[in-house]
């Protein structure tokens, strides 16, 4: 079923939608998970087609991968997981985003739920979503600096966890 | 009082119905048997804290049944759970809002040392920034371990003195007005 959705998508957007791959995943009923590569410039058109023509009305998640040290063209890949709640259909879209500029069009005009999901990806990876209504940090504190889930950010952080005033017993 | 019992001089003079003791012992007896916890449960240790407050482990036997979520009405803060970098200023503000005398128990591995989470978000031990009296190891510690910690706090209270601050003037903590602007929800 997902394969049919991917093929329809490919038929509509020749050239921009490539590399349909699928794998078996173990779920309550064994199912095939289909992943499709999308050109970053056409992501909004692809998402609109998926929502209106393919019936994938639910945006389940937006995430990203940082391919810092792995070979390949672009540093980041933004992943969109689309679901059809009525019949359980699923499709995964992947869009490659270069390091500079780390930008991609926002999906907020297509799916309202993309608002906070994109803020999370911005906070963790530093990928800016163009024409997002509120492109600010959502998980880390406001005064935080850096994008923690990038591969070049140290796990132990850069000292934010040690910078608090010390309240001694006498001063309490 | 029966024959042969020990009577301190003034009790002999005053007769039955009077007991003498030291102010410290009397005050500490009252305080240690009515430790009202301020449960600062942020994560899994909070569940074990809730188990302690239930009927099976029953912390009410220790006089601690008045679980006030208001820091101004409690005297034992139990930091139960992971404290993130966003939560630490809140924890410090709550600690400063508790009136003296107050004690702090750091419950579990995460509050004591960061636990298994050595990451950019978690404070590696709250004792770096607030004064802790008793640490409880465990992930999570069983309610019995928490009872042991409360009894340890009782021992700490016993050794306290009302003259603790006789020669020092504690700095009044400056409460800055909270001017954080809430972001608009979109």
Q: How does this structure look, described?
A:
The complex is a heterodimer of chains A (172) and B (186). Chain A has 172 residues and is α/β, with parallel strands linked by helices. Chain A has one domain: Beta Polymerase, domain 2 (2-Layer Sandwich). Chain A is 19% helix and 28% strand. Chain A has three helices and seven strands. In chain A, the strands form two sheets. A five-stranded mixed sheet of chain A has the order 1-2-5-4-3. Chain A has a two-stranded parallel ribbon with strand order 6-7. In chain A, β6, α3 and β7 form a beta-alpha-beta unit. The longest helix of chain A is centred in the C-terminal third of the chain and has 12 residues. Chain A starts with a helix and ends in a 42-residue tail after the last strand. The mean pLDDT of chain A is 88. Chain B is built from six helices and four strands. In chain B, β3, α5 and β4 form a beta-alpha-beta unit. By secondary structure, chain B is α/β, with parallel strands linked by helices. Chain B has a single domain, classed as Rossmann fold. The relative contact order of chain B is 0.15. The mean pLDDT of chain B is 86. Chain B has a four-stranded parallel sheet. Helices cover 31% and strands 10% of the residues of chain B. Classes of the chains: A alpha/beta (172), B alpha/beta (186).
Characterize this entry briefly.
The complex is a heterodimer of chains A (172) and B (186). Chain A has three helices and seven strands, in the order αββαββββαβ.
Detail the topology: elements first, then pairings.
The complex is a heterodimer of chains A (172) and B (186).
Chain A: H1 2-12, E1 17-25, E2 31-38, H2 43-52, E3 58-66, E4 76-83, E5 90-97, E6 103-105, H3 114-125, E7 128-130
Parallel strand pairs in A: 2-5, 6-7
Antiparallel strand pairs in A: 1-2, 3-4, 4-5
Chain B: H1 9-14, H2 23-32, E1 37-41, H3 44-53, E2 76-80, H4 88-97, E3 103-107, H5 108-113, E4 134-136, H6 143-158
Parallel strand pairs in B: 1-2, 2-3, 3-4
Helix pairs in contact in B: 2-6, 3-6
């Amino acid at each position: 079923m997902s394969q049919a959705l991917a093929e329809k998508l490919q038929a509509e957007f020749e050239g921009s939608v490539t590399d349909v791959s699928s794998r078996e995943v173990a779920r309550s009923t064994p199912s095939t998970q289909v992943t499709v590569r999308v050109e970053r410039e056409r992501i909004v058109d692809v998402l609109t087609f998926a929502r209106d023509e393919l019936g994938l009305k639910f945006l389940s998640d937006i995430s990203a991968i940082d391919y810092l040290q792995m070979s390949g063209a672009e540093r980041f890949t933004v992943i969109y997981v689309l679901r059809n709640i009525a019949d359980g259909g699923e499709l995964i879209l992947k869009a490659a985003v270069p390091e500079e500029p780390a930008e991609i069009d926002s999906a907020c005009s297509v799916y309202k739920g993309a608002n906070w999901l994109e803020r999370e990806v911005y906070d963790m990876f530093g990928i800016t979503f163009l024409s997002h209504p509120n492109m600010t940090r959502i998980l880390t504190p406001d005064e935080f600096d850096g994008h923690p889930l990038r591969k070049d950010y140290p796990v132990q952080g850069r000292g934010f966890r040690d910078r608090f005033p010390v309240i001694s017993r006498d001063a309490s | 009082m029966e024959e042969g019992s020990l009577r301190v001089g003034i009790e002999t003079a005053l007769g039955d119905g009077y007991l003498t003791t030291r102010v410290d012992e009397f005050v500490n007896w009252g305080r240690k048997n009515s430790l009202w916890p301020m449960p600062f449960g942020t994560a899994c240790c909070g569940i074990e804290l809730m188990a302690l407050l239930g009927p099976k482990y029953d912390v009410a036997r220790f006089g601690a049944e008045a679980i006030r979520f208001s820091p101004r009405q409690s005297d034992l803060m139990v930091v139960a759970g992971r404290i993130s970098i966003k939560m630490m200023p809140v924890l410090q503000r709550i600690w400063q809002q508790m009136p003296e005398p107050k004690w702090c128990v750091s419950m579990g591995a995460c509050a004591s040392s960061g636990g298994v989470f050595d990451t950019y978000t978690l404070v590696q031990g709250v004792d770096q920034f607030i004064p802790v009296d008793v640490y409880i190891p465990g992930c999570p510690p069983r309610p019995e371990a928490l009872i042991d910690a409360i009894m340890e706090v009782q021992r700490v209270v016993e050794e306290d003195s009302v003259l603790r601050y006789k020669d020092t003037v504690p700095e009044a903590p400056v409460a800055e007005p909270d001017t954080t602007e809430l972001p608009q929800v979109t």
